[in-house]
Amino acid sequence: MTPSPHRIVSRRRETADTWTVALEPLPGHELPMFAPGQFGMLYAFGVGEIPISVSGTATRLDPLRCTIRAVGGVSGTLAAVEPGDLVGLRGPFGSIWPLTDAIAGDVVIVAGGLGLAPLRPAIHHLLAHRDQYERVVICYGCRSAAELLYVNEFEEWRRRFDLDIDMIVDVGGPDWHGKVGVVTKLVELAAFDPQNTIAMACGPEIMLRFVALTLKARNLPPERLYISMERNMHCAIAQCGHCQFGPRFICREGPVLRYDDIEEWLKVAQL
Amino acid sequence: MESIEEELAATRMFRHLTPEQLKAIAELGEDVEFPDGRALMIEGGLADSFYLIRDGFVAVQTQSPAGPITIETLHNGDPVGWSWLVEPYLVYFDVHSRGLTRAIRFDAEALRQLCAEDPQLGYELMRSFASVIVERLHATRLQLLSIYARTATA
């Protein structure tokens, strides 16, 4: 698949090394319709291509948004793009968050660090269709307050009365007056009906395993937890094998997967 | 507000205690209230009590030249303090209330005496605290791993 040229519309700094860029297709090219949970392959011309979290799905009124942490050559180049620059985009790829299955029940969202990015479109959907869901809980953990993503939006979410939202940091400095600890603490404290809840989690795999244990202790049926996996995706079309995870290709069967389908594979050392 | 005994019975860490054991522990407790920023414990002090948070939260902190660093916050149903269990019964971290906090304070020396007189109750109390300590150690290990660092995308 050929990358479709997109122009950078805006760039916003989220943290010291993370930016969210908004992009639009060039005239004559189709608007990419990403569903919450799907990913794209973003191409820095002449540098390389990486899988990217779609943190804001495009509509007729709002451009596609991607959140990028600069950790290497390609991501560093993409994080440094300026409005007007051209990039290439392939996608959408992959599976989606089970927002339809969650209708009429509670929804628990657990995000760790940059894991909030692929969950953000799901949160937007839940808020846009709020009357279709019962309790909506968001638990967000990160290293410190300096690494909180989407600060302004997070404060807007906090002000809503129809959302249970809380965050916790690993390290609380002198200016931090909120909760300190691991994100599983928020899951322990959250109020939801485990028999009528769909949980969606994204973050480091260690975090996901502990979140799964905590939800299991809360009697959430195992088939009701979904996670988003990130594993060395290169071609995004299940050809190169880089993202193969047991019998699955993360780029094709994932990145959103039912936890109980992959739980045993997560325990395989160095897989 | 629930009685101390009812509060203990509803708390996860004491779930396996018998009603008689809960009653014996409850008799050594008293309701206390802390406005925002009040110290429940100060580093270096005598660990003469432990608390069970009824409502609110507290910050477990250590002082640094840049100001207090919060290591952990504890919330409804969490016990605060386990140094009373082991000699030399010294407090190692400050604990301050964040906002109005209601808790139950238990006299440590009286509890140790109770455990000595009733080894079965003592064993169950140690089991309760051991489970809390294990959970907090797991959480501390996760915090130490800095698990959120260094991936380009989520």
Query: What is the ordering of alpha helices and beta strands of chain B?
Result: HHEEEEEEHH
The proportion of residues forming helix of chain A, as a percent range, comes to 10-25%
Number of helices of chain B: 4
Low-confidence stretches of chain A: none
Strand order in space, largest sheet of chain A: 10-9-8-7-11-12-15
Number of separate structural domains of chain B: 1
What is the rounded distance between the termini of chain B? 44 Å
Average the pLDDT over all residues of chain A and give the rounded result.
92
Please mark out the parts of chain B with pLDDT under 50 across 5 or more consecutive residues, or reply none.
none
Instruction: Supply the CATH architecture of chain B.
Output: Sandwich
Number of E strands of chain A: 15
The assigned structural class of chain B equals alpha+beta
Count of extended strands of chain B: 6
Overall description:
The complex is a heterodimer of chains A (271) and B (154). With 271 residues, chain A is α/β, with parallel strands linked by helices. Chain A has two domains: 4-93, Beta Barrel (Elongation Factor Tu (Ef-tu), domain 3), CATH 2.40.30; 106-266, Rossmann fold, CATH 3.40.50. Chain A has seven helices and 15 strands. Chain A has helices at 73-79, 116-128, 151-159, 183-189, 205-217, 250-253, 259-266, and strands spanning 4-15, 18-25, 39-44, 48-56, 64-69, 86-93, 106-112, 136-142, 164-169, 179-180, 197-202, 225-228, 244-245, 248-249, 256-258. Chain A has a seven-stranded mixed beta sheet, with helices on both faces. Chain A starts with a strand and ends in a 5-residue tail after the last helix. Chain B is of the alpha+beta class and 154 residues long. Chain B has one domain: Jelly Rolls (Sandwich). Helices cover 33% and strands 32% of the residues of chain B. In chain B, strands 1, 2, 3, 4, 5 and 6 form a six-stranded antiparallel beta sheet that branches. In chain B, α1 (4-10) packs across α2 (19-26). The longest helix of chain B is centred in the C-terminal third of the chain and has 26 residues, at 119-144. The mean pLDDT of chain B is 92.
